[in-house]
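Quick board copy: two proteins, each given as sequence then tokens.
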Amino acid sequence: MANADVHRREFLTYGATAAGLATLGPTLPAWAFPSRPGEQVVPWADPPPPVAAPQVVPRQLDWEQLDSWVTPNDRFFVVAHYGIPDVDAAAFRLRVSGLVDRRLSLTLDEIKARQRQEVTCTVECSGNHGIPWLTGAIGTARWTGTPLAPLLREAGLQAEGVEVVFYGADSGEEQIRDTKVQAPFARSMSVADATAADVLLCWEMNGVALPRENGFPLRLVAPGWYGVANVKWLDRIEVRDTRFAGRFMGRDYVTVREEEVGGRRLAVETTVGRALLKSAPARVTRLGDRHRIVGAAWGGPVARVEVQIDDGPWVAATIDRSDAAEFAWKIWSLDWNNPTSGEHAITSRVIDAAGRIQPAMDDPWIASKRTYWESNGQVTRRVRIG
């Protein structure tokens, strides 16, 4: 089952990458995707329906076209609840205020002059696979910026500060009971989470300036968190002494589950936070009469991935471990020899280093959920052979 070309990636520079990687940037190294020369993609038999909210989700990853470990910028998913703002980089200022000793107002050049740090991580919308048409809200990129923690320390975090709120330049009208307000996009973290060493203020994506639709000129990147926490078009940071409860913390991006409490079924609500363990089949390819299933796994330290075809046994897939990025997805594959003609169901599940298993769709963790956020149940795709 394990083939040499699954375990091997050739190190490539920009000039030698395939055309699909051309947007990665002139100095960014990329990894070739495990593939067999001459293979063809067998289309999925269950394509998702048209996007119901293209103004919010104008672009998603096409799993069948997944052919690189790092997602090129022009294929990276886009979610914009209040539209995509047009920010003037020359006039841009990042303002830090609230419970700090020194308020800051930094230009983009001043931010870029700070300590430079890179992280490669997978970002997924927490609603991905929770809505029939939302199946490709995920991507992996190399983000470049500066650590947030030193900046907050320089501002002088006051002892009373417990919450750090991140505001984007995008805003929209919200109806809160009988009142209409103009609200900015905002998310928050505890001070401890916000000052983690890998939380970055980023201005580059895959070696070039952030695309406008992905947060230009500055965005937050919090590896290991769902996409909503990675605030785009970031222009204001505020330290508070109380928990923040804006739309995207207290009213939206809230997971509701029913739990058995004292013999009663009661709702339990939690705010979407860190990404959960997950995998998905990406595509099926054919080379002559030999087929291969390829997919990705993410959301934790991936120990193994298993694949089930129809109602057959779970079979271990081969995981490509040639990358060492802690927060990036792992690409896996399974050779599928001599499949019978007809339609087949393909399901994957990932197991992490602690033995936790991606839940089945009928697992109580998923079945008790009444909202589509944090949808990390096992993903099944259907393919027609012959």
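And the next:
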Amino acid sequence: METGEPSDLASAQRRLVTHAAALGFQVVHDAAPPVSVLDEPGTPLTVMEAAAALGTARFCESQPNVVLRLGPSRSIARTLVLNCHLDTVAGAVPVSHTGGTVTGRGSVDAKGQAVALIAGVREALARRPDFPDRTTVLLQLVGGEEGGAMGWYGTRLLVRAGFTGRINVVAEPTRLATLDRTTSTMTARIRVDGEGATDDAAAAGHNATLALAVVADALVRRIGLEAANSLCLGGLHTGTMHNRVYGKGVLLANLAYGSKEEAAWLRATTEDAFGSALTVLERDFAHIPIATRTARDARQICQLEWTKQGLPVLRGRDPAMERVLTAAGIDRHDDDAGLAPFTCDAMWFNDSSGYTVVLGAGDLEEDGAHTDHEQVRLTDLASYVDQISALLTQFDRMPRG
């Protein structure tokens, strides 16, 4: 999503398929997302733009999804899903293994989790070799989770195809306790498309830096005061030179929500703040010579577009399956304490009939996911292996029906 180059996702999938096959897993789905998926309503704009830049067919072909199955096809009641994304954010992080800690891009988010899932199944088979006679495990190795893809052409398609279970475990770093709720995000992109100028005639141009700064100020004042944890005021870019007035620029704002009601409020408030910012430009800057043209033309050169919106959130409880997890020694993050919900592929299981949890080793922040210091401790992965093994064992012990 972020490099502009074809993904090598299939290579990572092949390595994991080899190890899983040794345990008895069979590939039941190995396919690139159809190009038609990018024409569906709601496709994130960032996905469409990345696909257009690379070529839609090439983009899709390089990001296949793989599903493996251990045991025969069974009803959802006797099926458990393990889901893990293998794509990462951009940026090379040197790989090393020192003192029981592995560093490298994807070590904690989320290739390390995928390795632990397979090791957990291996451990469960060692403890209970015949569990595939009663319980089916689906292992999903997907792409399209990072970079604003939001699982649109990955997990979303697999859920829609019916690859779901009574318990669906989505592997993300959660400090080895479950989250059964997620947030989702919507992204506003504010553009200024005006004419630039040189420093010798600064007043002759539109000043995108000024316009976007006023918009950023309005967003922080409106949303930052009323819903501080919902707003991530992201990249602002106009240019880097000191002796130019840049007439074009972009500001990004990412907005997290935990319900449809929150999403509706955030969208309305963002659009209102944008409108208020244009009013401020027109009213407060028209009399300042270097800003007069920007103020006068604000509504012609500034626009707000939603690059991503309308995504679901995961929110559900299931006392019966929670008891299975508890019996496996797996804790749950409380609604009012512990790890706060975040956005991930689990949201697409929201409408399935099973119970979905996010569960994994490590911590997104402490282990540097998406940063130049990404790492994972092998002791954390080992604990995750034990959890997956115990969960499979407890799930297998459930009475049929």
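Board note added afterward: The chain has two domains: 9-182+314-396, 185-308.
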